[in-house]
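Subject: Sanity check before I submit

Could someone independently write out the structure tokens for this chain? I want to compare against mine line by line before I put it in a report. The sequence has 356 residues.
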Amino acid sequence: MPRPIQARIALSALEHNLQAARRATGARIMAVIKAAAYGHGLLPAAEALGAADGFALLDLRDAARLREAGFRQTLLLLEGFFTPDDLPLAAEHDLACVIHHAQQLAMLDSCPRRGALQVWLKVNTGMNRLGFAPRDVPAAMEKLRSHAAVRDITLMTHFSHADEAAGVAAQTEVFDALAAPYRAARSLANSAALLRYPATHADWVRPGIMLYGASPFAEIPAQQIGLRPTMTLHSRIISAREIAAGESIGYGGTFCAQAPMRIGVVACGYADGYPRHAPSGTPVLVEGRRTRTLGRVSMDMLCVDLSALPDADVGSRATLWGEGLPVEEVARAAGTISYELLSAVSGRVPLVYRES
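---
Independent answer below. Compare away.
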């Protein structure tokens, strides 16, 4: 018998969330499916999101897999190419490549065919991660516009505070001033900007986390903005026991019972992708009823409080996040973000796909 843990992926929820993005904008949608579609599986997620106008990802080999599977949308490599040796394959599969530093501009001379590449020039408007400084954009544009390998240019940037009070005004102002002299498509908006700042939609939007049913905003639940959870991580209780007042649980004894308790052991741990740093009190559902974790998360197991759940026992279903328990709520309790939880689900957890 395999371990009882699995991640159920609701394909209809992916489709629903893409439609929610479509209703919010008239721009073309570049669905972000990097990191195996945030842990949901590259090809199944891409098929469910097949109405998108394009897909953004990191790995050239993943982009080649999509092409070979028959996807004809724009495929964008978000970090572009890393060596000149990447260019023949990028050209062969008609991939769009982000250019974000001068060395990539120089590598373009290795491209084997005229007009082979769509290029997205990334501008650093304040994120200070990737992208050309504003002062270097005119020279980069001149180089790209005259390069034989380049057939099309899109200007892009990335927001650092679209989900926070600081907002996007300062970065948008810098970007708009830089883009104004050029007749080029533009892309600015991530999930948060797509939902909150319509003025940033431009020609392409790049939704990521919202496609997977999680809110990009700390203060707004996903359900409130019309999103459905796509991944439900669940397992089962494999042991149940009574402990006395004063007894502790797990490594380091970080939780000590103040009164007699009944506890359950769930077959899920940090080797499955559940965060080790999740503290006692992180919410869990057992047979649909809310309870909490107890003690330190182990590699393969975690403990939950069954004191108020007399009917729960070995074999009872435990939902770690997903339907009935928003992933962002678990992430908040664990001091992290939903992006990390979804994308960190390990390869030993089976992904089970269903339509609804």
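---
OP: Matches mine. For the report I'm noting this point. DSSP finds eleven helices and 18 strands in the chain.
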